[in-house]
Amino acid sequence: MLAERRHQLILRALRSGGPAAVTDLSEQLGVSPATIRRDLVKLEEDGLLTRVHGGAVADEGDQPFAEVAEVRVAEKDAIAAHAAAMIEDGQSVLLDIGTTAFRLARQLHGRRLTVITSNLVVYEELADDEGIELVLLGGMVRREYRSLVGFLTEDNLRQLHADWLFLGTSGVRPGGQVMDTTVVEVPVKRAMIKAGEKVVLLADAAKFPGTGMAKVCGPDDLDVVVTNAPVDAATRSSLEEAGVEVVVAGKVQA
């Protein structure tokens, strides 16, 4: 059995039945315990599960907006403050879904900007700010995640161009790949990248490597990464090689 197929079956077993022991997975898949252990190490590196004594448990994956909004607020605010300082009045800004983009929106009050978004919480935050031209993308509503997705969202983005895209992520791999936990969001993020003149990834320290099974883009699609802590050496090297500027708490690393 190919490793990729084993990985799919391991994740399916964990998500359907909860924690699983190495011995049980070995019997189910007909391979040695040593092979299963290697598979679990790889899947943990990819942010798809957590190894525990004798086995593994699946990571929770994409969490509802309300839960994530209460996590690492100070870190997200530090990232948002730096991102807001990059924007000049009169420019157009495309904001991705997620809680860090929402924290950035809160920094934009009183500015003269055009803000484009599929993030319903960003829309609600800026709806009454008369200095901001607000463009809400169409699409299917994902209520728990407060976002709009689907072909309507993607089609809207093909008709637009923004000076800045501020992109969120579930995780960044050592090779610089930007990941997401939800496949349905990936086409929208890719359409946003095409619509943005400058692409800025907003990623707090927990996103290295974070989680995610779906690749959004590689480092070549990014211009800047704004984070709140030093990036690990392997990821920093990959970003540097792609010419990406890494900004940490106001200090330029690359």
From TrEMBL:
Write down the Gene3D superfamilies for this protein, in alphabetical order.
Answer: 3.40.50.1360, Winged helix-like DNA-binding domain superfamily/Winged helix DNA-binding domain
Q: From the UniProt record, which GO molecular function terms apply?
A: DNA binding; DNA-binding transcription factor activity
Keyword annotations: DNA-binding, Transcription, Transcription regulation
User: Transmembrane segments in this chain: where?
Assistant: none
Under Pfam families, the record lists: DeoRC, HTH_DeoR
Q: Does the keyword Transcription apply?
A: yes
Tell me where in this chain the HTH deoR-type domain is found.
3-58
| Stored InterPro entries | ArsR-like_HTH, Carb_Metab_HTH_regulators, DeoR-like_C, DeoR_HTH, NagB/RpiA_transferase-like, Tscrpt_reg_HTH_DeoR_CS, Tscrpt_reg_HTH_GntR, WH-like_DNA-bd_sf
Q: Under what name is this protein listed?
A: ArsR family transcriptional regulator
